[in-house]
Design a protein that fits this description.
With 154 residues, this protein is mainly alpha-helical. 40% of the residues lie in helices and 10% in strands. InterPro entries: Cell_wall_hydrolase_SleB, SleB_dom1.
């Protein structure tokens, strides 16, 4: 499998995003690219859980008047070091990729507030077999595919 980057497709323009007076188009595209990068190959439920995690971060930031990872979907997804696909330097994914189409459907539901949160409010995730410092001494609150989710990390 070759690595690909998450550069937005040329068909997603700033004008089309501004046309609907919101950043929802950009948010959906950014979230879909994040899901594609970090969860393609996982079960759909894992992709949905990762989308819920991003939305949990957005909600937490809004409730607290800001948070270190950003306050909207685009900022949360593109925060350096948080989601691997945004580290750049690879080929772009295109809309004809079937996995990306699934990610776009999930992202649209998440941004529209129509996606249930199966993670119990998780804001942190890592793959099984990894051991990030922040996870030491904590138990995952949910597990989907190879992704472990945590809701007790500040």
């Amino acid at each position: 499998m070759s690595a690909r980057s998450l550069r937005p497709e040329p068909t997603i323009s700033a004008a089309s995003v501004l046309q609907d007076n919101s950043r929802s188009g950009e948010a959906v595209d950014t979230l879909a690219r994040t899901l594609w990068s970090d969860a393609r190959g996982e079960p759909v439920r894992a992709m949905e859980a990762l989308a819920a995690l991003v939305m949990n971060r957005v909600r937490r930031a809004r409730e607290r008047g800001g948070w270190w990872w950003g306050g909207d979907v685009v900022a949360v997804c593109r925060k350096p070091g948080q989601f691997g696909g945004w580290n750049g330097g690879r080929d772009a994914v295109t809309s004809d990729d079937p996995a990306f189409a699934a990610c776009r459907r999930i992202a649209r539901r998440a941004v529209a507030g129509q996606l249930a949160d199966p993670t119990f409010g998780a804001t942190h995730v890592h793959r099984a077999g990894e051991s990030p410092d922040w996870a030491h001494g904590r138990s995952a609150c949910a597990e989907f595919g190879t992704l472990l989710f945590y809701n007790d990390v500040e």
